[in-house]
Amino acid sequence: TGDTGQGARTWIKQILNQDMAFQHIKVIYPTAPARPYTPMKGAFSTVWFDRYKISNDCPEHIESIDSMCRGLTDLINDEIKNGIAKNRILIGGFSMGGGMAMHLAYRFHQDLAGVFALSSFLNKDSAVYQALKSNERVLPELFQCHGTADELVLYLWGEETNKMLKSLGVSTSLHTFPNLNHELNRTELEKLKTWIVKKLPVEAAKTN
């Protein structure tokens, strides 16, 4: 919360000592709009959606989640218009950004290549779980990472989210980082890069 797409990019660059860059993949860092954020007593912050509280045990602020899903759908559609196949698009994020990505993919864009969620969670009765209960199709794979020492988004919440999505037919992995708080580290980002290239391999030269 409170960071921008550019801020996230800089943060990742500091950890990796280089940009999260791929020769054949374009990386986009969107910024959430500023909105009043209830956990900060209604102060304006760049957040993807509002929360009643930072807990997995309360209702979701579905109105703000859905309005953001519409905005981010426009971003996905712009890439498709630019000639990117939808099954060659991955989405994900850190903390709230990962929660946003799970809503976007598993409720509205089940034909994306995959989702990553770093230090993220879904509320216990999430609309994502409701959407997947009647699902028949093959869903985007989920790559999750979480630090066991996270004091803001508890490791348990991330683990519960992973188990719940797995039980609903999502192919998931959960990478656990002992002593990591609500932050990113180099090992995690290296694992993420490896997973991204596995999901989006360089396409074989097209033959006529």
TrEMBL record:
Keyword Acetylation on entry: yes
SUPFAM superfamilies per record: alpha/beta-Hydrolases (SSF53474)
Catalytic activity: S-hexadecanoyl-L-cysteinyl-[protein] + H2O = L-cysteinyl-[protein] + hexadecanoate + H(+)
Localization per Swiss-Prot or TrEMBL: Cytoplasm, Cytosol
Short name of one Pfam family: Abhydrolase_2
TM segment ranges: none
Domain Phospholipase/carboxylesterase/thioesterase: 2-198
Entry's Gene Ontology cellular component terms: cytosol
InterPro entries in the cross-refs: AB_hydrolase_fold, LYPA1-2/EST-like, PLipase/COase/thioEstase
UniProt similarity note: Belongs to the AB hydrolase superfamily. AB hydrolase 2 family.
Cited function: Palmitoyl thioesterase that catalyzes depalmitoylation of CGAS and KCNMA1. Acts as a regulator of innate immunity by mediating depalmitoylation of CGAS, thereby preventing CGAS homodimerization and cyclic GMP-AMP synthase activity. Does not exhibit phospholipase nor triacylglycerol lipase activity, able to hydrolyze only short chain substrates due to its shallow active site.
UniProt-recorded name of the protein: Lysophospholipase-like protein 1
Organism: Pluvianellus socialis (Magellanic plover)
Gene that encodes it: Lyplal1
